[in-house]
Design brief:
alpha+beta, 15 helices, Growth Hormone, Chain: A, Immunoglobulin-like
């Protein structure tokens, strides 16, 4: 296999660390994530339009509750599907089966709506199921393809493609709906699902051997109808992840309520307390449009430029702690200064991190677990427990605000307490994950296989030198090396020496006064931060041809 990075891989390395050969499969999976998220966000515009045109917000709340109720029955059906398809060849079969169901459902909805049949309530429920189930099974498929070290490096890139798809899907929905109507949007969303259906079957053969997950274990026979719940509850690790998901929902719902309450209070102070006021409606719409736009843009930037770097520098354990620390500091400050602008900043920070870093970290948590836990456990957590969190959150807000009359400050303090609990679960999950990784994979430093030889160059001339791919090696399967160069005493390179770590290339262009000997260090560092190095001398012949020390 070619060990040189392709031009495409060098470009993708701006966002994460890649091994040679990983660029093509990463792009294939990124295209699938982009298409699924684009499809989901296209459908959101007509989902809300349909439900609110045939009912009110109360009907929307009832439909959300029905989604959670249906998942109690859908999760066992999915578990049966997994046990049926798992022994068959091809890891993509489960994803394809689920997406085929949703694709044909979309086409059926398009035909029914075209014929004038009312689909609002059923479609709203269906779209909610599509959103949680398709993403859960896609990320289970991704975790099933890559070993833990490769997945940890590549998941930020794949998630960034999904974030871009969500952003473009949301931006395209209204113009497409104006141009082709609801039927056109439904058909476009269905066509987008052909992308993962077409590409997913090529993934296993495209992934290089050192990055591919091992062959999956033979599935056990299906258990009871509560198999999804038992898989989660039997594992302390999965149970902790489920609790994390519920806590994240609780904190977010409380935060949304705090912002909404402070906003209505601020409008009332400005004399806009009438719900019939057009100016009030305009101000609220503008406020939330700004909030959603900033959150989406900031989330995309975090996904593109920070997630892989947080994974690289702090690992999964460190990434888990970011959101709890942000919410702890944010709601602590907000409890002291309950201002609308501060609440908005806290919520934007919370949601942009949750949609990017925390979401990617949650997906990566399933890389080292069994295949059964990847598919059934993740599906149970990301669907049923996620919706359960929605219901608990909504119920607590209703009881605390409407029945008990708690003030906004109580919700801020409540989120402060919940953030402490969330931080505790994040620390525990990080420890569990680290122990699982150590059991399944080694964590050895890179090795220096062939030291770099000394060089002799001439001053006044450009000289390029590329050291061999075999110079350094990494015994850890799926890991990738990054290279940096320094002077012997760890100081930066002088201006006449440039080093390209992606191509392992030095460019020497010494001036007439740069003759003599200089010692360089090349450091090879893996994704876990372990390193080794090679030192070598560069002898620069001055214009007169003599080398001096």
């Amino acid at each position: 296999m070619n060990k040189e990075l392709s031009p495409t891989e060098r470009f993708l390395s701006l966002f994460t660390t890649l091994r040679a050969g990983e660029g093509f499969p990463a792009l294939l999976l990124a295209a699938q994530a982009f298409a699924i998220m684009f499809s989901l966000y296209l459908l959101k515009v007509i989902r809300d339009t349909l439900i609110l045109s045939q009912g009110d917000a109360e009907l929307k709340a009832y439909a959300t509750a029905i989604q959670a109720g249906l998942l109690i029955f859908i999760v066992p059906i999915f578990a049966r599907l997994y046990f049926y398809l798992s022994p068959r060849s091809g890891k993509h079969l489960i994803l394809c089966c689920v997406l085929q169901f949703f694709l044909f459902s979309l086409l059926l909805f398009a035909v029914l709506y075209w014929q004038g049949v009312s689909i609002a309530v059923v479609f709203y429920i269906w779209q909610g199921l599509f959103a949680v189930m398709s993403l859960a099974v896609f990320w289970a498929f991704a975790a099933d393809l890559f070993n833990p070290r490769s997945g940890q490096r590549l998941f930020p890139l794949i998630a960034a493609a999904g974030a871009l798809g969500a952003l473009l899907g949301a931006a395209s929905a209204a113009p497409l709906n104006t141009l082709s109507g609801h039927v056109g949007v439904l058909c476009a969303a269905a066509l987008l699902l052909l992308v993962p259906l077409t590409l997913s079957g090529r993934m296993e053969e495209a992934i290089p051997t050192g990055s591919l997950a091992g062959s999956h274990e033979a599935p056990v026979s299906p258990g009871s109808l509560a198999e999804g719940f038992s898989i989660v509850l039997r594992s302390r690790y999965l149970s902790a992840i489920a609790a994390l998901v519920v806590l994240l929902n609780l904190i977010n719902t409380n935060g949304e309520f705090v912002v909404a309450s402070l906003l209505t209070d601020e409008l009332a102070r400005q004399g806009l307390d009438s719900t019939q006021s057009p100016e009030r409606a305009q101000r609220i719409t503008g406020f939330y449009a700004t909030y959603q736009s900033i959150t989406a843009l900031l989330g995309l930037l975090i996904q593109l430029f920070l997630v892989s770097r947080v994974f690289d520098r702090f690992g999964i354990r460190g990434a888990l702690l970011v959101l709890p620390i942000v919410t702890l500091l944010g709601y602590g400050l907000l409890s002291l200064l309950p201002l609308l602008m501060l609440a908005l900043i806290v919520l934007i920070a919370e949601n942009s991190i949750s949609y990017s870093l925390t979401a990617t970290t949650r997906h990566a948590l399933f890389l080292p677990v069994s295949r059964e836990q990847k598919y059934i456990g993740k599906q149970t957590i990301e669907t049923l427990f996620f919706r359960l969190g929605d219901m608990i959150s909504g119920g607590l807000v209703y009881v605390a605000s409407s029945l008990l009359g708690f003030s906004t400050l109580v919700f801020m303090l409540g989120n402060l307490v919940l953030s402490v609990i969330l931080l505790g679960f994040a620390i525990a999950i990080g420890r569990y994950h680290y122990r699982i990784i150590l059991k399944k994979m080694n964590n050895l430093p890179p090795v220096l296989a062939s030291p770099i030889s000394d060089l002799r160059i001439d001053s006044g001339r450009l000289t390029e030198f590329v050291f061999n791919t075999e110079t350094f090696g990494d015994p850890d399967e799926g890991d990738a090396l990054r290279y940096t160069a320094y002077l012997n005493d760890s100081e930066p390179l002088p201006p006449w020496i440039e080093f390209d770590g992606l191509q392992r290339k030095f460019s020497f262009n010494p001036g007439s006064n740069d003759g003599g000997r200089i010692q360089l260090r090349v450091v090879a560092r893996d994704f876990q931060g372990l390193s080794t190095e090679s030192r070598f001398d560069v002898h620069v012949a001055p214009v007169n041809g003599r080398i001096t020390d």
